[in-house]
Specification:
The chain has a three-stranded antiparallel sheet with strand order 1-3-2. It contains six helices and three strands. The protein folds into two domains: about 40 residues, no CATH class; about 80 residues, Winged helix-like DNA-binding domain superfamily/Winged helix DNA-binding domain (Arc Repressor Mutant, subunit A). About 55% of the residues lie in helices and about 10% in strands. The chain is mainly alpha-helical and about 120 residues long.
Length: about 120
């Protein structure tokens, strides 16, 4: 049976395909690091909305619902600093700000899709 750790530990596999327990440590640390960043409330929802194309602040706020402007602003800043989204300012009038996924953000979409599918199939809430 394969696991999420297989790709990270493939070079250390034994002849029968088993992954030694000590090879899982680095992969587990990578997952913990990813979820510290991506596990903040609203982050995945913001990325999901941006996966459909460039979106402005107001449209994100309305589309997500329940997120305060200050939290949305903070999450957008985190995602911009992390290189997952790009912020573009168009001089007006009126001045408009749009957000888009970067290549780095787009590379994350298949993984988020798998997590969403898992949640749909395995979580009762």
């Amino acid at each position: 049976m394969s696991s999420v750790f297989d790709a990270a530990a493939a070079p250390g596999e034994t002849a029968d395909g088993a992954v030694p327990a000590d090879a899982c440590g680095p992969a587990a640390e990578d997952l913990a690091r990813a979820f510290r960043f991506l596990g903040k409330r609203w982050t995945a929802m913001i990325l999901g909305h941006l996966s459909h194309g460039a979106t402005g602040f107001r449209d994100l706020s309305r589309g997500i619902g329940g997120i305060s402007d200050s939290v949305l602003s903070a999450r957008l800043a985190d995602l911009t600093d992390g290189g997952l989204i790009a912020r573009s300012v168009s001089e007006g009038p009126p001045v408009t700000v749009t957000y888009t996924l970067t290549e780095r953000g787009q590379a994350l979409m298949p993984a988020l899709g798998l997590i969403a599918a898992w949640a749909r199939d395995h979580l009762d809430c």
